[in-house]
Design goal:
two-stranded parallel sheet; seven-stranded mixed sheet; Spore Coat Polysaccharide Biosynthesis Protein SpsA, Chain A; disordered N terminus; alpha/beta
Length: 262
């Protein structure tokens, strides 16, 4: 956990305990089966939050379904962004962040479309923000965190990736690859989002690392991560290779910069 005094006045500002002022960003690509389920669960758990569906031109009709969900929501809580290219999870989230920042949301949340992140546990992230954190990560690997129905190989890969990232970067975050997150808007306003080129879970490491380096308070709360039941995982070998090369480079660059300052 990292705290810098100059951020404290911002961090102390309360967020809506009922989700007011919160934007949940849900990137989609071929999630036509999962999307209506996750949207329903989000609004059952937190009726006041708004949802931004960022669809990367899904050929299965996810984007069209998202438009239908938005048009039939009487409270105007669902919004849709259609992107013409599929260039990774990171790019989709950055587009969503910029959309939300332009519309004065106070909290921006990352959430998967496949149900692996439980909307019923979103309140844990929002409550921790209200206690003063700037970024809250829903963690599988702190006491109380669990994974359900995950293949052993995937869990080993995830745990190994987190240990690898912690050692390479020298951070204490247990689940820096985790994708269930809540950011205060001033964190994202401070970071240079246009310079982020990472994809997949490397994007999560990248943004978490930048948040720590900027001196913000990063906290973790336990969540239950449940393997998707519908659709196909987006994990690929290229995502793993990206992290394997980029993460140690960031750590080495940081350590060399510290040595030069001495």
């Amino acid at each position: 956990m990292v705290t810098e005094p100059e951020h404290n006045s911002q961090a102390a500002r309360p967020v809506g305990a009922d989700g007011a002022g919160t934007l949940v960003i849900i990137p989609t690509f071929n999630e036509i089966e999962n999307l209506p389920l996750i949207v329903k669960r989000v609004h059952a758990a937190q009726p006041a939050v708004h949802i931004l569906i960022v669809d990367d031109s899904s050929p299965d009709g996810t984007g069209e379904l998202a438009d239908k969900l938005a048009s039939t929501d009487g409270a105007d809580r669902i919004h849709v962004m259609h992107r013409t290219v599929k260039d990774g999870l990171g790019a989709a989230y950055i587009a969503g962040f910029k959309w939300g920042l332009a519309r004065d949301y106070t909290v921006l949340v990352e959430m998967d479309a496949d149900g692996s992140h439980a909307p019923e546990q979103l309140h844990r992230l929002l409550d921790r923000l209200n206690e003063g954190a700037d970024l809250v990560i829903g963690s599988r690997y702190v006491p109380g965190g669990t994974v359900v129905n995950w293949p052993r190989r995937r869990e080993i890969l995830s745990r190994g990736g987190n240990v690898y990232s912690r050692l390479a970067l020298g951070v204490k975050i247990k689940d820096i690859t985790g994708g269930f997150r809540a950011y205060r808007r001033h964190v994202l306003e401070t970071l240079d989002l246009s310079s982020i080129e990472s994809h997949g879970y490397c994007f999560q490491v990248d943004l978490g690392w930048r948040t720590v380096q900027a001196g913000f308070d990063v906290a973790e709360v336990p969540i239950t991560f449940t393997e998707r039941e519908l659709g196909e995982s987006k994990m690929s070998g290229s995502i793993v290779r990206e992290a394997a090369f980029k993460v140690p480079r960031w750590g080495l660059t940081h350590r060399m910069a510290k040595l030069r300052r001495k």
